[in-house]
Amino acid sequence: MSYPIDVAASGVVLLGPDIVCDGFLLRCKARVQTHVHLDHMADFDTSKGYHDIFLSRATRELLCVEHNADLPYRSNLRALAEGTPYGVGTSILTLLSNGHMLGSVQVQLHDGRRVGYSGDFQWPLDNVIAVDALVVDSTYGSAANIREYSQAECETRFLELLHGQLARGPVHILAHRGTLHRALQLLSEHTESTLLGSRRLCREVEVYRAFGYGIQPLVPVDSPEGREAVGTGRFVWFYGTGDARPVDIVGGVTISLSAYFARPDDPITEYSERAYGVALSNHADFFGTLDYIKATGARFVVTDNTRGGKGYELAIEIKSRLGIDAQPSSNFESKEWGRGPLD
Questions:
Q1: Which domain holds residue 200?
Q2: Do residues 109 and 258 share a domain?
Q3: Whole-angstrom Cα distance, residue 189 to residue 181?
Q4: Strand 235-239 to 30-32 pairing
Q5: Which of 145, 191, 278, 302 has the fewest CB atoms within 10 Å distance of its CB?
Q6: In sequence order, what are the residues at sequence separation of 6 or more whose Cβ sits closer than 8 angstroms to the Cβ of residue 55?
Q7: Tens digits of per-residue pLDDT, 297-323?
Q8: CATH number for the domain including 18?
């Protein structure tokens, strides 16, 4: 049996005849938005005019915070409960959490053939899609991408670094969505310093709180309380997607949180006395990726070769280590894309 699944150079993922993920394809009936990271938001405004857009409830709320001009009123923005099947064209669509960030999902599609997309995912997971054919994220698709530390150890090291720097002055934390809120969750339990952020980031944090995250409210940096904290120099200032970055803060230290790890044996990278990087990752590493593929039951795998170029290596490793047929994505798109050798 052949499976019409592939990934184009733009990162758009095709699942069967009806569904496109994280991108726009006119001939598909619907788009699935797996999460809100910018590298997965290609042509979202175009999709609003043509597609039904399926996503988790949390992703819908996060998008409304970021793009709230019309999204709360759009009938084609359809939030699905996790694990609830929904008919789309001739297919049955089901979304399951993949642990990458609030609202992020795996995608399962059933139209006589069971196909799916991992999205960016963390491992281990409580619930894994069951599919015959899978498009898998290949961020850590190389056998060199193996962590020698646990994420619990990384969290401990991050807190040690932050508290050590707070004893000397203010700390500025730069991170993308998901990673930033994970850090906030850690700090809400382990610091008495004032936590600052932009008005936009404060609204975003309230979405996380509404979905049960144990995060203390951020203080708007331009509020009286925020300005007072900046004046005392005892604060942790968070900068998320779209926020202006800190410039020349005397006595301040910047910690950049990344979903990627620079070194397999140490989550901390010291760039200077005032700049550090921490690999607080919500991506599965190489072995986690292989374990996830096994758990799906897939007999055929397309590796996403559009982000980092690890898809070729991962496809070879899947064949040799798991004995599962695999090939890298074509990274090709045309009017006939998805109707070639995989269909």
A1: 151-278
A2: no
A3: 13
A4: unpaired
A5: 191
A6: 32, 33, 34, 63, 77, 78, 79, 80, 95, 103, 105
A7: 999 999 999 877 789 999 999 999 999
A8: 3.60.15.10
340 belongs to a structural domain? no
Q: Are residues 54 and 112 in the same domain?
A: yes
Does 271 lie in the same domain as 157? yes
Q: Crossing angle of helices 57-66/199-210, nearest 10°?
A: 160
- The confidence band for 291, taking pLDDT boundaries of 50, 70 and 90, is very high
Q: Name the H helices within the chain.
A: 44-50, 57-66, 151-166, 179-190, 199-210, 224-232, 286-296, 311-317
Q: How far is CA 330 from CA 5, 121, 306, 309, in A?
A: 10, 22, 9, 12
* CB within 8 Å of 193: residues ≥ 6 apart: 166, 234, 235, 236
Q: Is residue 82 domain-shared with residue 9, that is, in the same domain? A: yes
Beta strands 275-278 and 253-257 are parallel
Which tokens sit at 62?
């996060």
The first and second tokens of residue 174, run together, are 């730069």
CATH code where residue 238 lies = 3.40.50
Query: How many structural domains is the chain composed of?
Result: 2
Q: Are 5 and 336 in contact (CB under 8 A)?
A: no
In this structure, are 157 and 116 located in the same domain? no
**Inter-residue contact 242 to 62 (CB < 8 Å):** no
Question: Whole-angstrom Cα distance, residue 169 to residue 251?
Answer: 6
Bond from prior residue into 124 cis (ω within 30 degrees of 0): yes
Based on the fold, state whether residues 92 and 189 are members of the same structural domain: no
